[in-house]
Design a protein that fits this description.
Radius of gyration: 15 Å
Structural class: alpha/beta
Distance between the termini: 28 Å
CATH superfamily: HAD superfamily/HAD-like
Strand content: 5-15%
CATH architecture: 3-Layer(aba) Sandwich
CATH class: Alpha Beta
Strand order of the largest sheet: 1-6-5-2-3-4
Order of helices and strands: EHEHEHEHEHEH
Helix content: 25-40%
CATH topology: Rossmann fold
Number of strands: 6
Shape: globular
Largest sheet: 6 strands, parallel
Length: 168
């Protein structure tokens, strides 16, 4: 398994990822981190923009699956309410949850991507599994620990941009 902390693609927010971009890169399955990627840690209410994005992805034929490390019922309840596949307790950057998602969609890692807000879990997990890694800006850094983690990620974001691995 390759070990890389550099995201393959960087977007400002999840809803900037388009079906066209995914198809251009041969991606038919988009795995999604939940907390701070789709919704802030502090909210259970999705934005209208997120709901339109989910609907647009489904209409475009892009399979979606939430792959979350969370043990709280919030992500599973959201997925049930919005008819999304969900793998909780995924243990990213380990591959258990990612492999489970790939198997449930009968997908190879090369035709999948994982979008998330953390380099040390989401990006590393995707890269180790052989899926495309998509880093998005965290929705809300509401405590000091999230701010410190985000600061520690900045050198890797800089290197990824410098190596032009990212979408312009």
């Amino acid at each position: 398994m390759p070990f890389s902390l550099l995201p393959k693609h960087i977007f400002h927010k999840l809803t900037d990822v388009t079906p066209e971009f995914l198809r251009e890169h041969g991606i038919r399955l988009l795995m999604l981190d939940f907390d701070n990627t789709m919704l802030p840690y502090t909210s259970k209410v999705p934005t209208p923009e997120l709901l339109r994005w989910i609907d647009g992805m489904k209409r475009a034929g892009i399979a979606l699956c939430v792959v979350s490390n969370s043990r709280k019922p919030k992500s599973a309840a959201f997925c049930k309410a919005h008819n999304l596949a969900c793998v909780t307790h995924s243990k990213k950057p380990g591959g258990r949850g990612i492999r489970k998602c790939l198997a449930s969609f009968d997908a190879e890692a090369g035709e999948a991507a994982l979008a998330g807000d953390q380099i040390f879990t989401d990006v590393l997990g995707a890269n180790r599994a052989g899926a495309a890694s998509i880093l998005v800006k965290p929705i809300h850094l509401h405590n000091v620990w999230l701010k410190l983690r985000h600061a520690a990620e900045q050198p890797f974001i800089f290197l990824a941009r410098k190596r032009r691995i990212t979408k312009p």
